[in-house]
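Put briefly, the fold is written as integer tokens. One such record reads:
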Amino acid sequence: MVDDNELMSVVRSAFPPAADAGPSRDLWPRVVDRLQSRPEPDWIDLALAALVVVLLVIFPEWLSVLAYHL
């Protein structure tokens, strides 16, 4: 049977110590810039949203189907 200390020494010799595991730079400013520079909605997105609203006005019973799939 293998002793715990021997097993730990084998594992430590197989895996060298990790270098600095921190990020190379601060990512938070890039996240804030991306959130503030949101693109405008495309015309196809607006057309599809309008189509869904029109269909729900015409067929209100489809609301349960739509809610199920969302």
